[in-house]
């Protein structure tokens, strides 16, 4: 159980950092999605990839909303950095609490991004539906 708990925060950090780096990068030979899912736990590849795809799409649809969620991802990354720096000093209960909280918050932000992306696409399609 502890080995899995350590994998999830690492995967969480990889996804968040990759999302942020992919969003800030100018041009890359490897698609951002492949970068984001590299090294993730195999059971989470689909969810992580979809979150990254939604986040990338949101950047194109509504840059202000993208920046808002990017700030939220930054807070999670800062918390993960704190966790990673101090995990040796922590007892198991605080470690588990931080892991669960960070994973829950990441999932919540991914759902917010998904919802915002859907709403933005719906706005774009409104003009098409009037034809």
Description:
With 131 residues, the protein is mostly helical. It has helices at 2-24, 32-37, 45-61, 63-86, 92-129. The chain contains 5 helices and no strands. Mean pLDDT is 76; it is low at 19-44. The chain is elongated and about 60 Å long.
Task: Note the beta-strand portion.
Answer: under 5%
Q: What is the N-to-C succession of helices and strands? A: HHHHH
Briefly note the structural class of the backbone: mainly alpha
Low-pLDDT runs of 5+ residues are 19-44
- Assign a percent range to the helix content: over 70%
The count of β-strands is 0
- Specify the overall morphology: elongated
Radius of gyration: 16 Å
- In quaternary terms, these chains amount to single chain
Overall pLDDT, averaged?
A: 76
Largest sheet: none
What is the overall number of helices? 5
Ends distance:
55 Å
Summarize the structure.
By secondary structure, this protein is mainly alpha-helical. 82% of the residues lie in helices and 0% in strands.
């Amino acid at each position: 159980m502890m080995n899995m708990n350590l994998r999830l925060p690492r995967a969480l950090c990889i996804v968040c950092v990759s999302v942020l780096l992919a969003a800030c990068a100018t041009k890359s030979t490897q698609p951002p999605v492949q970068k984001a899912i590299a090294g993730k736990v195999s059971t989470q590849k689909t969810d992580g990839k979809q979150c990254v795809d939604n986040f990338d799409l949101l950047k194109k649809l509504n840059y202000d909303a993208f920046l808002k969620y990017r700030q939220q991802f930054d807070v999670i990354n800062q918390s993960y950095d704190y966790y990673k720096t101090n995990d040796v000093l922590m007892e198991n209960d605080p470690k588990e609490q931080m892991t669960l909280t960070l994973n829950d918050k990441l999932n919540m932000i991914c759902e917010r991004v998904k919802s915002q992306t859907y709403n933005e696409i719906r706005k774009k399609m409104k003009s098409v539906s009037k034809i």
